[in-house]
Amino acid sequence: MIPPTADPAQGAGDGDLLTRKEASAFLAGLGVRLKPATLARLWSTGGDGPPCRHVRSKPYYPRALLRDWALSQISEVRSAAPAAARARRRG
Hints:
Elements: E1 17-18, H1 20-29, H2 36-45, E2 53-55, E3 58-62, H3 63-73, H4 83-90
């Protein structure tokens, strides 16, 4: 892990840069399970993956941005499929 940045506006450890493996474990703790290989694929295909920084072409994920991204992926509790999904099933 790369040392944290010295920004007092960030929470403890929010400036940490995580490797893909560390990012995968961090995301799992938030309920978003993605393997390091999936994070790599999301980056290379321009998918809707978490933002990252590169240091000499190696990707690192800022902890605070990773947390924000993970929380944006989790929906509210639902009791049925969204209307658009139900319409697709009817054909």
